[in-house]
Specification:
29% of the residues lie in helices and 26% in strands.
C-alpha cells in the first residue's frame, strides 16, 4: 500500500478521505495542522527539512501554503509533483497575469500594479483590486471611487505567506501590494483539472452562485450549465495557460468569467485541488478528486474518464452581511463545516470577503439544480446561529436606547 503524506491538512481533507474510502487504497499520514487556524509559531524551514526525510510515495497539500510546502518537501525528497517555482508563478498574481497574457492575450483583462494609492493613468473607475498574494476573496473588492484606494490595507497573510515562499526563492518585498484590474462580467465558473507529464486533463467546470445584489458566493454548482462549445473553449484555454506557468504533475483550478459573447476571461490560476468541490464531483461523477490527487502524487496517471453526470450537487456557503458577536453556534451535523466559534465577533475570525462573513459550508445533491439549491437553502435556515449585531452591542456600550 502506497503512503501519501498530507502536509498541514484541513478538516475537509479528512472528511473527503473518509467519505471516499481512500484509506483502503492509500496509507494516509499527516504532518502539521491547518495553517489558517494557527501558524504563529510555525517554522517552514524546519518543517520542510524534517518532512523531506520521511519515506513516503507522495506528498500533497490542499491550500495555497500547504501546496507550496508539499512541493518543497517533494522536491527535496526526490518525489514527483509540481515544482515550488511553478506554484509561485501561480500564486503571485502579477507573475501569473503576465504569463496568462503571453499564452492567451484575448482572455486576460488589463491589469497593473498599484503604486501605493496612486491609480495608473490607464485606469478609470470602476475597477477591481486584489492583493498580489492572497487566499479566497480576502481584501479583493470593486472600487468605484479613487478615494477608496486610501482605505486599502493588507491583512496578516502576506508576511506569513512570505515565510514559506522564501524557501522557493521569493523575496518578501514581492508579496506586498495590490493589483488593479479592469472589471469583468459574465457567468463566473471554475475549471478543475490536472497535468500529468505535460498532458492537461479537465475534470469538470463548476458554476458560481452569488447572493442577489452582491459579489459574495452563495454556492457552487456542479456540473456547469454552460453549453458544450463554451466548456470546450475553457478546456482548450487551460491547455495553453497552465503549462505556461511551468506547472506539471499536479492539480490546478482556473477561475474565469464567461460572457454571453466573446472569449472567456481569466480571473486567476490556482496550483492546487479545489477541495471544496471534491464532494460535488464525487456525488455527480462517482469518483473522488482526492483519489486522483493521491495517484498523481505517487507518479501515476489518474486516467480520469468523465461519466454521464448524475444530477447536480451544490456546495453552499451560509453568510451574513453584518458584523456580529457570536453567542452560540449549532452542532455541526454530518457534512457541515462550522466556520466560526462562540465568544468573538465575526470580523475577528474566519476568512471572509469584503462584504460578508461566512458561517458554515455544506453540500446537497438533487436531480436538478433547482432541487439542490432548494435543499441547500432549507438546510441553511435550519442552522441556528446565535448572533448579536455588533452595532447593537456598540449602542449598549454607549448607553444609547
Amino acid at each position: 500500500m502506497r503512503q501519501v503524506l498530507i502536509v498541514c491538512p484541513q478538516e475537509r481533507d479528512f472528511r473527503e478521505i473518509a467519505a471516499a474510502g481512500l484509506g483502503a487504497e492509500f496509507e494516509i499520514v499527516t504532518a502539521g495542522s491547518d495553517l489558517d487556524a494557527h501558524d504563529d509559531a510555525f517554522d517552514p524551514e524546519r518543517f520542510v527539512a524534517e518532512q523531506s526525510t520521511r519515506a513516503v510515495d507522495g506528498v500533497v497539500g490542499t491550500k495555497d501554503r500547504s501546496a507550496l510546502l508539499a512541493a518543497l518537501v517533494a522536491q527535496r525528497a526526490g518525489l514527483g509533483g509540481p515544482t515550488p517555482q511553478a506554484l509561485l508563478k501561480c500564486q503571485h498574481k502579477p507573475t501569473s497575469r503576465a504569463l496568462q497574457r503571453e499564452a492567451a492575450p484575448d482572455s486576460v483583462p488589463r491589469f497593473a500594479l498599484l503604486n501605493g494609492s496612486v491609480l495608473p493613468e490607464t485606469f478609470t473607475t470602476p475597477f477591481f483590486v486584489k492583493p498580489v498574494v492572497g487566499r479566497l476573496s480576502e481584501n479583493a473588492r470593486r472600487i468605484d471611487s479613487r478615494a477608496r484606494l486610501a482605505e486599502l490595507a493588507e491583512d496578516g497573510y502576506p508576511p506569513r505567506y512570505a515565510r514559506v515562499a522564501a524557501l522557493a526563492g521569493m523575496h518578501e518585498a514581492e508579496v506586498h501590494g495590490f493589483l488593479v484590474e479592469e472589471l469583468l462580467a459574465g457567468a463566473e465558473v471554475t475549471l478543475e483539472g490536472y497535468v500529468h507529464r505535460g498532458h492537461v486533463t479537465t475534470i469538470g467546470v463548476t458554476d458560481s452562485l452569488k447572493y442577489p445584489g452582491t459579489n459574495s458566493f452563495e454556492g457552487f454548482a456542479f456540473p456547469s450549465a454552460l453549453p458544450a462549445d463554451r466548456l470546450d473553449e475553457l478546456a482548450e484555454l487551460a491547455e495553453r495557460v497552465v503549462p505556461a506557468h511551468g506547472f506539471d504533475d499536479g492539480f490546478f483550478n482556473m477561475e474565469l468569467f464567461v460572457p454571453e459573447s466573446g472569449p472567456a476571461k481569466l480571473i486567476e490560476v490556482n496550483g492546487r485541488i479545489a477541495s471544496q468541490f471534491a464532494a460535488l464531483v464525487r456525488a455527480v461523477q462517482g469518483r473522488s478528486t482526492y483519489e486522483a490527487l493521491f495517484r498523481l502524487a505517487c507518479g501515476d496517471d489518474p486516467a480520469w474518464q468523465a461519466s454521464p453526470p448524475r444530477g447536480v450537487a451544490i456546495s453552499y456557503c451560509l453568510r451574513v452581511f453584518e458584523d456580529a458577536f457570536v453567542a452560540g453556534v449549532p452542532d455541526a451535523g454530518e457534512g457541515v463545516e462550522i466556520l466560526v466559534e462562540p465568544g468573538r465577533n465575526l470580523s475577528a475570525q474566519g476568512t471572509n470577503d469584503a462584504e460578508s462573513y461566512r458561517l458554515a459550508i455544506f453540500h446537497e445533491w438533487g436531480e436538478t439544480r433547482e432541487e439542490a439549491l432548494e435543499r441547500c437553502r432549507a438546510r441553511a435556515t435550519a442552522l441556528e446561529f446565535d448572533l448579536v449585531p455588533a452595532r447593537a452591542l456598540a449602542a449598549a456600550a454607549r448607553g444609547d436606547g
